[in-house]
Amino acid sequence: MRQQVLRGAQSRGAQKVVNPQALKNSLAQSLVAGLPGPEASAEDLALVAREGLGGVILFARNVQSPAQVWQLNYDLRRAAAQAERPPLFTMVDQEGGSVARLHAPFSDGPDMAALGRGEAADLGAFGARLGRELAAAGFNWDLAPVLDVHAVAGGVMARRSLGGDPRRVAALGAAFIEGMQAAGCLACAKHFPGLGRTTADTHKERPFVSLSRQELAAVELVPFRAAAAAGVAGVMICHAVYAALDPERPASLSPRVIQDLLRGELGFQGLVLSDDVEMGAVAGHMDPAQAVVEAYLAGCDLVLVCHRPELALAALERLVELALAGEIAPALIAQKTRRIIQLKQGLEPLPPELGVLQRVLAENQARA
Fold first, then answer.
1. 101 in Cβ contact with 91 (< 8 Å)
2. Does the annotation count 275 as an active-site position?
3. Which residues are CB-neighbours of 16 under 8 A, at least 6 positions away?
4. Per-residue pLDDT of the chain (368 residues; tens, 9 = 90+)
5. Over the stretch 53-83, which tens digit does the pLDDT of each residue have?
6. In Å, what is the CA distance from 87 to each residue of 55, 161, 239, 255, 340?
7. What is the distance between the alpha carbons of residues 256 and 254, in angstroms, rounded to a whole number?
8. Strand stretches in 175-320, DSSP E
9. Domain annotation for the chain: domains and CATH numbers
10. Distance CA 221, CA 194 (A)
11. Which residue in 44, 142, 148, 275 is the catalytic one?
């Protein structure tokens, strides 16, 4: 199946005739959808088995208990495996404190702001602890850590940031990343290129950041450079507009931010993720399905649609139509698909047995 996905993405460059299903298989790998409830419905299973979406993301609405969330992840990953799809990304926002989808007996921990007062070893241990629990629960990707440098009074990231010193945030974030990924769960640095100096919430509105390139390089970009050097699997792009980088488009839809800055100047080689396109910063300005297309074309390898899976499917159909019409370069599709498949080759198709989760949670509680 992995070979079929890659062949489908590359076929336009070698042949005049395109296999629409193989093309759809490739494009679908770039979509991550949120699900409505705590059990995998027939529609949910079809998203990963029939439609071949690359990943799912779970929220509090999907979680009732450790055994239940393990079963949900197991059912989704098994559906992908039985359909001979590449391993499914199963994502969650488990930052700690105010942003934690899993609570006791999981380690939800304090806010990142509190963790930021500790040492790098503490963050590494916390990342490893979370990573073991998440991997045992069937997750293979935690959308953490937050690397926004909190540098303004009333900043929207005050509780979620590791602090206001960019070098310290860089060191702590890198330790968290290394601990988590060594424990078997991918990490994602966010929210590039940095939301630490805005008071506007992208869930509701589109922030406009007027910092110069020099100011961004001296503060905001420092932790992301460290994350890239630490081998972080992914970087999430935010929906703010940065006047010095691209005054007309939010970062998540901007080739200047993603391709020129993140890929070019920072040399990041991992996967690029969009933030949720259903947030007000995007959905309040344009059709979210079109935003999926624009994020894909701008350089995002994975585009998150966190609330309405039907929107993800509509966006997939739009991507397929554009690709069949020759409006998306075959080389671009092949490049994105190759990155995704290469990362997935290191993932297990199925979670460990439920007993592993029960043992990990018991051990972590005993150490607390």
1. no
2. yes
3. none
4. 333 333 333 333 434 567 899 999 999 999 999 999 999 999 999 999 999 999 999 999 999 999 999 999 999 999 999 999 999 999 999 998 888 899 999 988 888 899 999 999 999 999 999 999 999 999 999 999 999 999 887 788 888 999 999 999 999 999 999 999 999 999 999 999 999 888 777 887 788 999 999 999 999 999 999 999 999 999 999 999 999 999 999 999 999 999 999 999 999 999 999 999 999 889 888 999 999 999 999 999 999 999 999 999 999 999 999 999 999 999 999 999 999 999 999 999 999 999 999 999 999 888 87
5. 999 999 999 999 999 999 999 999 999 999 9
6. 9, 31, 28, 28, 10
7. 5
8. 186-192, 208-209, 234-237, 241-242, 271-274, 303-305
9. 2-367 (3.20.20.300)
10. 7
11. 275
The two tokens of residue 2 are 């992995």
DSSP letters for 82-151: HTTPPPPEEEE-EEETTEES--TTS---S-HHHHTTS-HHHHHHHHHHHHHHHHHTT--EE---B-----
Cα–Cα distance for residue pair 296/19, rounded to 1 Å = 21
DSSP conformational letter for 238: -
Contact 40, 121 (CB under 8 A): no
The model scores a pTM over 0.90: yes
Listing DSSP states for 29-76 in one string gives: TTEEEE-SSSS--HHHHHHHHTS--SEEEE-GGG-S-HHHHHHHHHHH
Tell me if residue 239 is catalytic: no
* First-to-last C-alpha distance (Å) of the chain: 43
